[in-house]
Amino acid sequence: MQLAEGPGDPRGGLIAAQENEDPMSIAQLKERLPDYARDLKLNLTSVGGASELSPRQMWGAALASALATRNAEVITAVAAEAELHLDQPARRAARAAAAIMGMNNVYYRFVHFMGDGNSYAGMPARLRMQVIGNPGVDAVDFELWCLAVSAINGCEACVRSHEKVVRDKGASPGMVQDAVRIAAILHGVAAVLDGEEALARVAA
Description:
By secondary structure, the protein is mostly helical. The chain has a single domain (24-203), classed as AhpD-like. It is built from 9 helices and no strands. The protein has helices spanning 13-20, 26-31, 38-44, 55-69, 72-82, 88-113, 139-153, 156-168, 173-203. The longest helix is centred in the last third of the chain and has 31 residues, at 173-203. It is globular, with a radius of gyration of 18 Å. The chain starts with 12 loop residues before the first helix and ends with a helix. The relative contact order is 0.15.
């Protein structure tokens, strides 16, 4: 599956690939994983399987997490499967979760790195983030998706904040674990695929 920008295609990348080829499925994505990543291949099977999450919560977490990995193959495979389970507002909200956390996780990770009592913690962030208050879907769902993305991006402050919100709103520990498990699996798969692509260039 070619995702690089092609000659004469000013858009290239993911958009061109989606228009010119059938999207990769998660089953096909599994076959792309090498033997040393067999554990990840088996874990990938659990995405979409039995869970304390509703199908909407699960596939929203998967889509947001896939976007956070930045790997085009993972994104296209998960997006194709999520299309079957998410309506347009949920797809938009999952994308919004990945987008807003891509910004917030960097900022609040910096503030957290600076330690207790740092001068930045009391300063207004001056970052627009209205989508968090009005995501267009149930607040628990959106917060779960933000939590999954924050786990991938490694922001402790954001992980703690979103975990507290979803737990306060009634989500079980199992629901939180399932969302983060999906994030972990997709991040690992993306890392393997990125690594294999780099190694293939070296071998060539």
